[in-house]
Amino acid sequence: MAELTMETLVSLCKQRGFVFQSSEIYGGLSSAWDYGPLGVELKNRIQRFWWREMTQLQDNIVGLDAAIMMHPRVWEASGHVESFTDPLVDCKSCKQRFREDLIPEDNLKNRTCPECGGPLTETRKFNLMFRTHIGPVENEGSIIYLRPETAQGIYVNYRNCMQSSRLKIPFGIAQVGKAFRNEIVTKNFIFRTCEFEQLEMQFFVKPGEDEKWFNFWREKRMEYYPKMGIRPSKLRWHRHGKDELAHYAKDAYDIQYEFPMGWRELEGVHNRTDYDLRRHGEYSGKDLSYLDEETRERYIPYIVETSAGLTRSVLMVLSDAYEEETLEGGEVRSVLRFHPLLAPITVGVFPLVKKDGLAEIARKVEEDLREEFTTFYDQSGSIGRRYRRQDEVGTPFCVTVDYETKENDTVTLRNRDSMEQLRVKTADLVSVIRKGIRDYRRPGL
Ligand code: GAP
């Protein structure tokens, strides 16, 4: 099987309607991407899968959707105004800008540009938060930031959620949403962008129990990815060294995935201690402590965070699903082996031919399946070509209406992975497909 390159993935995403360059007709905006008809379906499904796992299947986690714009003091309290920076240098000759930590060692030692050899400026701190103004007057007092993480919206709502939902520690708050960072290095497609989406869950625990819950969530999060069909061999842990730990973290592990450009971070699991609530308590003047009603103990909860990228997960799911398979006879089939719960289209429906009333029957079958699944009707081209088109976008099931359908009300149900075709009663289609989704196993796993 040929190795998947990022170039192949970018072009496949464009051709098949997953991801387009932002403002492409104007030459594109670097580091921003648009999700096309199939991309938005895939992204929404990944989000739903995470949400179900982290809220519906838990008995002590609630959801939240906080605003992107927040009071500017939030970002002072969180430490972002002071510390959310990258070290940058400029080349005095070619004027290119680099992140100091990504410059080859020799160039750094000689202070020379890795591109043209020209002299480099002194290093300066560059804050990654996007600043803008709220209201009609643009002055220091009207500055606000586009949030660089969703987590802070959870911390400032911790008391609201706890009181309104009558939560007792340990409990969690989950949120999905946009985040913005003025990233300097944004290559690798949708891996690192200036506008992206996060899937974050903050779990509030009693101090002293933080390590137990940290290990608990590490285990849970690693178990999660294979549930959505990701190959376990492509996942591994990376523990943060002392020099990598964020200013708030006592311990941190990344779940890394082997992307086409190599092993990279997909999700972080962090033990944030009581840093966040302590700081928000100090800066807001509000009491953010927790009273354990049974023991009468009062404390500032510790927070264990699971923080994954939604848009980065889209890249992972696409990279993981892509396969080229050589069939008997030498034909190469390109297929996206999405888990059926993530596939943008669940069922393709075709008439074998358009004539003799088959198209009308197929339309009716498709309409009935729509109630339960995302469907796609196609009557153009040879049946083999139609199957291939659905393989290429990862549709796990295809239903074909043929002449036998007219005789005994049965259709063929084709499986994307095995390419096997079963004869199924039209009336049983929904339950057979439902079972196929529930029992799905990726070949070889
Ligand atoms: N609240 C903690 C936090 O934001 P992070 O490690 O900076 O931690 C968490 O980000 C996740 O968000 C990352 O593992 C990654 O999946 C995603 N992420 C971060 N920056 C990103 C960017 N510029 N583009 C796309 N995804 C990003």
Description:
A hairpin with a 5-residue loop joins strand 17 and strand 18 (332-336). The chain has helices spanning 6-15, 37-56, 72-77, 80-83, 105-110, 151-156, 158-164, 210-227, 275-284, 310-321, 358-370, 383-393, 403-408, 429-438, and strands spanning 19-21, 33-35, 61-64, 85-90, 97-99, 124-127, 130-133, 143-146, 171-180, 195-205, 235-239, 251-259, 262-271, 290-291, 298-299, 302-309, 322-326, 332-336, 347-351, 375-377, 397-401, 410-415, 421-425. It is α+β, with helices and mostly antiparallel strands. The strands form 7 sheets. Strands 3-9-10-16-13-12-11 form a 7-stranded mixed β-sheet, with helices on both faces. Strands 20-19-21-22-23 form a 5-stranded mixed β-sheet, with helices on both faces. It has a 3-stranded antiparallel β-sheet with strand order 5-4-6. The chain has 14 helices and 23 strands. Helix 2 crosses helix 10. The structure holds glycyl-adenosine-5'-phosphate.
Write the layout of secondary structure elements.
Layout: H1 6-15, E1 19-21, E2 33-35, H2 37-56, E3 61-64, H3 72-77, H4 80-83, E4 85-90, E5 97-99, H5 105-110, E6 124-127, E7 130-133, E8 143-146, H6 151-156, H7 158-164, E9 171-180, E10 195-205, H8 210-227, E11 235-239, E12 251-259, E13 262-271, H9 275-284, E14 290-291, E15 298-299, E16 302-309, H10 310-321, E17 322-326, E18 332-336, E19 347-351, H11 358-370, E20 375-377, H12 383-393, E21 397-401, H13 403-408, E22 410-415, E23 421-425, H14 429-438
The chain binds glycyl-adenosine-5'-phosphate.
Glycyl-adenosine-5'-phosphate binds next to β10, β13, β16 and α10.
